[in-house]
Amino acid sequence: MIRVAHLSKTYGEVTVLKDISLSVAKGEVISIIGPSGTGKSTFLRCLNLLEQPSGGSIAVDGIDLLDKKSDIPRIRQRMNMVFQSFNLFSHLTVQENLTIGPVRLLGINKQEAEQKALEILKLVGLAEKADSFPDELSGGQKQRVAIARCLAMNPEIILFDEPTSALDPTMVSEVLAVIRRLAKDGMTMLIVTHEMDFARDVSSRVLYMDEGLIYEEGTPQQIFENPQKEKTRAFINRIRSFNYCISSTDYDLYAMNAEIEIFCERQILPRKTRHNLLLLVEELLQIHTPLLATTALDLTIAYSEKKESLEIILENRGEAVNLLDKDRLPDELGLNIITHLAQQIDYQRCEEINRVTVLLKRS
Ligand SMILES: Nc1ncnc2c1ncn2[C@@H]1O[C@H](COP(=O)(O)OP(=O)(O)OP(=O)(O)O)[C@@H](O)[C@H]1O
């Protein structure tokens, strides 16, 4: 359906897209993930001709988009885009936002366009907001109107550029639910997203972009569970794990806990799990505090979505010592809390590093 070959984009001296080739079949849902500034949005904007590519070719069903004679409004109708910042017409009602394109660009009569707009608004759960103005809606509702407006143009392909990035966390799921529904209905979509759980369960294929290239691509399972290339692995590990280095007994416990909370929020962990995790970390650190007199402690929290498991790993250099060894512990209570919250505790010594790995019990 879409065939991109050797696409490149430069801004002055800066090359943002290097050499992108991609084929997309009808009905595919492709998520594009990767670090900030690697050209994900630029790639989508080039597909939609909001940016003029510097080289390469783009064809949709055999039609060359970069041909000077190509009908750009028609291309944008077939391959419509939903933006991070909604881009609704604020002086028009919700329904008028949905009818203006079909009436003016597709030549559909007003009554028919209004009828269709109401049907689409029903589909995105906003029929009762037809006469409201965008400013009267929440961010999540605005984005659903933007998706509805896109659907009103009867597109064959939808490009989503970070559709939930501008939303409060509480509104993300209502927008993702609408996109999930479109995926189920067989819509062909390319979605730039930072929502990894969503990318994992909605996509047929995931592209990991890095430094202007599609660095690795595969099924969600391949990319999230078994990435083959180094940078993909590092990226996936970074979003799935939390690291904190504690180098003195005066470390800022509150700052560290706040960072752990943010990590838990990103992984959408239940409140009880967060509570148990924080308690377990606190007890483990208390027992390991004496080590801070001579060495730093590296704390890692690793979340595996597949196994739904949380592992806490504490590492330090120095002489071989396992402070969770029952015989060494002055504080029975601390150990009791730990054994109550942990499913498994392991100690390993390798290359002069003590490593304690504690698996949190499922709550
Ligand atoms: N109009 C422009 N002029 C100059 N540089 C630009 C322009 N648009 C984008 N860039 C640069 O291109 C690079 C890629 O930007 P892009 O927004 O495509 O990245 P991204 O991967 O989508 O990032 P993020 O995930 O943060 O949105 C960035 O370094 C950006 O500064």
UniProtKB/TrEMBL annotation:
Q: What region holds the ABC transporter domain?
A: 2-236
* InterPro entries xref list: AAA+_ATPase, ABC_transporter-like_ATP-bd, ABC_transporter-like_CS, MetN_ABC_transporter-like, P-loop_NTPase
Q: Which Pfam families match?
A: ABC_tran (PF00005)
* Entry superkingdom: Bacteria
Q: State one molecular function term (GO).
A: ATP hydrolysis activity
Gene3D superfamilies, alphabetized: P-loop containing nucleotide triphosphate hydrolases
| Keywords from the UniProt entry | ATP-binding, Nucleotide-binding, Transport
**What family is reported?**
Belongs to the ABC transporter superfamily.
Name of the protein this chain belongs to: ABC transporter related
Q: What is the source species?
A: Trichlorobacter lovleyi (strain ATCC BAA-1151 / DSM 17278 / SZ)
